[in-house]
């Protein structure tokens, strides 16, 4: 399979095609071709594998196949994955979708680790995690070859198996001080390659060129944002080694283009309804500001507040009625500011919660939910009255089927109760003496006992010494850890169980509702954290789609890993709202109306609410994390839900395509059952 | 006239779940103890101004989730640390045995420039529990381990009673300062001050 190509990638038909795809709006593709043709150094393809595929959605028809390569140039190794052109029969799968996921020459200096999954049944796949904490979607090897892939990498760079997890291979992890020194010496050599100055692989030029394109790409709001331009000044002074791979940035810029097109489409479709926020006067004003601020940043005197680019999706007053604003996005008609106030831009008004009388109308005489979709939609817009939650949540969580009758549910409850008791008995029958020789059990029980006594104890339901409900939390979690022994117990689970027990009151029913919830959120707690990584990755994509200036700000400030949103996502905002508000949010999220991933749009909505503060005060990662942690208890849920709904609609299918397949709370992927694959030891 | 410029010292607290990381941090910064702290999800930090010989420093103390499953997050939080505090519960043997894992994981993820000499401080917490009767890790054993790892300073603390917490963090701050001393990136203007006068002269047991 080893084959040598002396040519650079511009001769690769797939690559050239994908470049052409972007050339209409990106000047960079031209310059890259120029630079590559004048590039004397050859690049060698050291690994090539066809039919390596990503699964952007759960549908088999929307999978994207491509060619994976490892390319060696000088001392640097690059990974590329280029989707095939025009192979798909699916109309929804446009070339743009393919470009979104294209991996163009990412150097291994930017890669932190590679996780391999080699299930006994189904396809092998790998997940590439970048140093920034971002991860690419899983790459499925339809023709096998993960072992060869890793072995090839090992021939060229330093790759070690993680001591923690035999399936994780860590790149550039030099524990030996000598190796570490060597590695750091190599950096200056590797970076210019990554920057494209001497690389035929690179599609970008010097940082200046790159920024030119970025400025181009950011023009969703029709103005060159000051932040963007500040960034341009700062980036020049940046240690290039700290920058994200430019190739990754290039990938992002394609998404930027989506954002632009999506937004322009929205503008076209909705400008009569108020989606026309371009202000030409602001443009010159902010450009002026930027020159001043950029100058001050150069001497490291960062002003307390910097002007913040307007939110592309925000309502903004416009003055010149009827005037057309020519922007990079397209041409829009500007709308009178007086009109704008009358128009509804954001989500529909919230409704009162679903009450008993209305609930009865959703049920037939035998207790079946006649119109599940309508019910979900109704709850999406208003939630459920507290005294109905015990009944309604069992449907939302999937414990009871919507088409089940009263009698069937009653029967199921009985069956499940005895099933629960059986599992519970498994650990209850472990004697003290036996436990002495059962370290794993003792540790697990210890961890659970430590956590239940610090879960929602200020709530009267759980407060006080020897509270029986705290014991119930412990019993259910311990039983769950036997029900799903592989997943076991992980911190955060007690936060997810607490509201369920609070509503259900019944031990067995709480357990089974929790089981249903964990079918979707279980991957949040996986040992490899892949569920969290895929959600944080999707979140970064969504912010890029829905707020380019904010995305650029995060990029410039090393915040792209979105770890500051970790708590939000892991326990579904449980620590961010008062208890009652959390219950409301959860039932809305569980409806899966509009999207299974509304929680990610909630993240975007909150970030957008505070975007001005975040960028204006120039928060760095630490400050941002602190700021986000301290937002706890201060977020207006109804307003955020309206925003999230609107953002979800705005993002449309591009939003859906930004979310890797199987991302929680989607049900785990059906990994296919093509053939069995032995888990060969590689390294 | 000594510089009044504030300098940031970054400290990471690591250790098993429930050993008292959040409590130690809050006892030191706010002089408060609560039985109601929730399990830390993700990470958080508190800051405290400390003064050494006319110079002000901001001690930024990072509190992280204790379950080993969350360690992959460390890469984002450990970077740029000046000192790492390893905490165990003197009443839980496993939490002591895990110190080595925490130390190694930290060195891998933070990849400090000089791992051999990176400053750690070990705290054996909860010495107040049951009047010391439920203790399973002896001070001698803990000190022996610290000695074997390059003479790591060791303190026995109680976050609940406030025992030794102030002293421990004094030592932590000094070690962090000393670490910053070696790395010009973090203390560009102030390197000279610490070198001679900030030797571990006051109370650091090392």
TrEMBL record, chain A:
Its main location: cytoplasm. Residues 383-593 form the Rab-GAP TBC domain. SMART domains: TBC (SM00164). Signal peptide: none annotated. Acts as a GTPase activating protein for RAB7A. Does not act on RAB4, RAB5 or RAB6. Interacts with non-phosphorylated form of RAB8A; phosphorylation of RAB8A at 'Thr-72' disrupts this interaction. Interacts with ARMC12. This is TBC1 domain family member 15. It comes from Escallonia rubra.
TrEMBL record, chain B:
GO terms for cellular component: endomembrane system; vacuolar membrane. It is found in: Endomembrane system. Its main location: membrane. It is a lipid-anchor. One of its GO terms (biological process) is protein transport. Keywords: GTP-binding, Lipoprotein, Membrane, Methylation, Nucleotide-binding, Prenylation, Protein transport, Transport. Signal peptide: none annotated. It holds the Pfam family Ras. GO terms for molecular function: GTP binding; GTPase activity. Belongs to the small GTPase superfamily. Rab family. This is Ras-related protein Rab7. It comes from Escallonia rubra. The lineage of its organism: Eukaryota, Viridiplantae, Streptophyta, Embryophyta, Tracheophyta.
């Amino acid at each position: 399979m080893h084959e040598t190509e002396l040519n650079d990638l511009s001769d690769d038909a797939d690559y050239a095609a994908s470049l052409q795809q972007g050339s209409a709006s990106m000047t960079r593709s031209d310059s890259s071709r120029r630079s590559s043709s004048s590039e004397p150094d050859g690049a060698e393809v050291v690994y090539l594998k066809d039919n390596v595929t990503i699964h952007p959605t759960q549908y088999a028809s929307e999978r994207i196949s491509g060619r994976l390569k490892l390319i060696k140039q000088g001392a640097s190794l690059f990974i590329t994955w280029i989707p095939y052109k025009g192979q798909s029969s699916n109309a929804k799968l446009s070339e743009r979708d393919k470009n979104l996921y294209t991996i163009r020459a990412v150097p291994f200096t930017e890669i932190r680790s590679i996780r391999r999954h080699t299930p006994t049944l189904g396809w092998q796949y790998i997940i590439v995690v970048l140093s920034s904490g971002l991860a690419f979607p899983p790459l499925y090897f339809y023709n096998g070859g993960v072992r060869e892939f890793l072995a090839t990498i090992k021939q060229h760079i330093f790759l070690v198996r993680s001591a923690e997890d035999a399936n994780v291979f860590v790149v550039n992890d030099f524990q030996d001080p000598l190796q570490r020194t060597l590695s750091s010496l190599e950096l200056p050599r590797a970076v210019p390659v990554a920057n494209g100055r001497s690389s035929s692989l690179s599609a970008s030029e010097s940082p200046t060129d790159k920024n030119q394109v970025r400025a181009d790409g950011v023009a969703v709001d029709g103005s060159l944002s000051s932040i963007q331009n500040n960034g341009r000044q700062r980036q020049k002074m940046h240690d290039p080694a700290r920058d994200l791979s430019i190739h990754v940035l290039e990938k992002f810029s394609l998404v930027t283009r989506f954002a632009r097109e999506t937004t322009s489409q929205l503008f076209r479709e909705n400008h009569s309804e108020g989606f026309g926020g371009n202000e030409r006067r602001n443009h010159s004003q902010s450009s002026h500001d930027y020159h001043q601020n950029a100058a001050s940043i150069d001497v490291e005197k960062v002003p307390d507040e910097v002007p913040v680019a307007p939110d592309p999706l925000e309502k903004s007053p416009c003055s010149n009625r009827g005037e057309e604003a020519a922007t990079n996005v397209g041409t829009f008609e500007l709308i009178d500011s007086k009109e704008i106030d009358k128009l509804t831009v954001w989500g529909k008004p919230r409704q009162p919660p679903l009450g008993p009388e209305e609930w009865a109308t959703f049920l037939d005489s035998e207790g079946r939910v006649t119109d599940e979709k309508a019910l979900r939609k109704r709850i999406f817009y208003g939630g459920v009255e507290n005294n109905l939650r015990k009944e309604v949540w069992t449907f939302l969580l999937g414990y009871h089927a919507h088409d089940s009758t009263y009698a069937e549910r009653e029967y199921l409850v009985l069956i499940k109760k005895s099933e629960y008791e059986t599992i519970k008995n498994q650990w209850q029958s472990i004697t003290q003496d036996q436990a002495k020789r059962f370290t794993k059990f003792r540790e697990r029980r210890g961890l659970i006992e430590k956590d239940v006594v610090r879960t929602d104890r200020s709530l009267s339901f759980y407060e006080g010494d020897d509270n029986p409900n705290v014991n119930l939390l412990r019993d259910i979690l311990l039983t769950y850890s036997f029900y799903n022994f592989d997943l076991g117990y992980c911190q955060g689970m007690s936060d997810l169980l607490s509201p369920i027990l609070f509503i259900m009151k019944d031990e067995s029913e709480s357990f089974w509702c929790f089981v249903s919830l964990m079918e979707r959120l279980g991957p949040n707690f996986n040992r490899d954290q892949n569920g969290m990584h895929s959600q944080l990755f999707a979140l970064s994509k969504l912010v890029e789609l829905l707020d380019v200036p904010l995305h650029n700000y995060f990029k410039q400030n090393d915040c792209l890993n979105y770890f500051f949103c970790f708590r939000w996502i892991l326990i579904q905002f449980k620590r961010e709202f008062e208890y009652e508000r959390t219950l409301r949010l959860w039932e809305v999220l569980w409806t899966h109306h509009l999207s299974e991933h509304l929680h990610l749009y909630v993240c975007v909505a909150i970030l957008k609410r505070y975007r001005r503060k975040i960028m204006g005060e120039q928060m760095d990662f630490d400050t941002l994390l602190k700021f986000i942690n301290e937002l706890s208890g201060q977020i207006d849920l109804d307003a955020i839900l309206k925003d999230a709904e609107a953002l979800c609609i705005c993002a449309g299918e591009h939003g859906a395509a930004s979310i890797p397949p199987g991302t929680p709370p989607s049900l785990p992927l059906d990994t296919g059952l093509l053939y069995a694959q032995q888990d060969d030891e590689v390294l | 006239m000594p510089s009044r410029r504030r300098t940031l010292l970054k400290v990471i607290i690591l250790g098993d779940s429930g050993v008292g990381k959040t409590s130690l941090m809050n006892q030191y910064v706010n002089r408060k103890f609560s039985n109601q702290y929730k399990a830390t999800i993700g990470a958080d930090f508190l800051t405290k101004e400390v003064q050494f010989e006319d110079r002000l420093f901001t001690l930024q103390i990072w509190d992280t989730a204790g379950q080993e499953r969350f360690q992959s997050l460390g890469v984002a939080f450990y970077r740029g640390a000046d000192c790492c505090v390893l905490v165990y519960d003197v009443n839980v043997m496993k939490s002591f045995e895990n110190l080595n894992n925490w130390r190694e994981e930290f060195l891998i993820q933070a990849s400090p420039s000089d791992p051999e000499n990176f400053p750690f401080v070990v705290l054996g917490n909860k010495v107040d529990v049951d009047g010391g009767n439920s203790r399973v890790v002896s001070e001698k054993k803990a000190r022996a381990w610290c000695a074997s790892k390059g003479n790591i300073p060791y303190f026995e603390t109680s976050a609940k009673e406030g025992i030794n917490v102030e002293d421990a963090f004094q030592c932590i701050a000094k070690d962090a300062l000393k670490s910053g001393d070696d790395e010009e990136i973090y203390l560009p203007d102030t390197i000279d001050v610490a070198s001679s006068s900030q030797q571990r002269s006051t109370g650091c047991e090392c």
